[in-house]
Amino acid sequence: MLSKVNLLKELPPDLDQSRLPRHVAVIMDGNGRWAKNRGKARIFGHQKGVDVLKDLLRCCQDWGISALTAYAFSTENWGRPQPEVEFLMTLFERVLRKELDEMVAKDVCIRFIGDLTNLPHSLQEEIKRGMEATKENKGVKFNIATNYGGRQEIIQACVAIASNVEKGLIKVEEIDEKLFENHLYTTGIISPDLLIRTSGEMRISNFLLWQMAYTEIYVTSTLWPDFNREKFHQALLNYQQRDRRFGKV
Asked: What does the alpha-carbon distance between residue 121 and residue 75 come to, in Å, rounded to a whole number?
């Protein structure tokens, strides 16, 4: 019997192609709880979560959504048990190495955002290789937030701008939103239209604080490893019912 995931290869007819979000961001919460509910170690949830993210990326390709940003590892996640952190770093590296050829073939443009300097050297090398190999691709823009924190991002932008003012490269009166955005990790990336958070948690967890000023937020109680195309379909239906006024009447 075909799964619903396979049945939703094409854009569902009840979705308006012209009103799809251009950019979807996801907080992939619930991997550990999903594994615990099945009597397994947390790492099994993370492994399953990677498969879900891969299909969501394919779904964005299939349905015509141009950008996807995934919150893979936050600056706060270093506080998790060391074996879990080490596993995640190894998992990121292994998946990137394994999937790169397909990303190139599918015309996906990969970009990592965050402070990458604290990541293991071998992972940094794979990240550089992946971004270099896909930088000219014109398909889905796949942004992976790794060692990312919204407050950290804003602070580093302020420091960079202040340094340029001190050097005489920027005048104080020249500082505006555009200039500030050009100093963020996400420079050149459009702001998310839709944020999806799984597992029912009602917070944004230090994710894209500047960029989500007018992002529509959709929270589902579904744990990330159970999130599929049907769940994504429901999120998009909900999004298309919103009246996005951006502070206007």
From this structure: 17
What letters, b where the CB count within 10 A reaches 16 and e where it falls short, cover 159-171? eebeebeeeeebe
Block means of pLDDT (10 residues each) for the chain, 249 residues, are 56 96 98 97 96 98 98 97 96 97 97 97 98 97 98 98 97 97 97 98 97 98 98 98 78
What is the rounded CA–CA span in Å between residue 38 and residue 194? 30
| Alpha-carbon span 116 to 188, nearest angstrom | 18
Q: What are 182-202's pLDDT values in tens digits?
A: 999 999 999 999 999 999 999
Which element (helix H / strand E) includes 60? helix 42-63
**For 147, left (φ over 0), alpha (ψ -120 to 50), or beta?**
left
Q: Which of 6, 14, 16, 29 is catalytic?
A: 29
pLDDT, one tens digit per residue, over 132-145 is 999 999 999 999 99
21-149+191-200 domain in CATH 3.40.640.10?
no
Which pTM does this prediction carry? 0.94
Question: Per the residue annotation, which of 55, 77, 115, 206 is the catalytic one?
Answer: 77
77 part of the active site: yes
List the structure tokens of 208.
């894209």
For residues 209 and 88, give the distance between their C-alpha atoms in angstroms, rounded to a whole number: 24
CA-nearest of 194, 199, 195, 197 to 222 is: 199
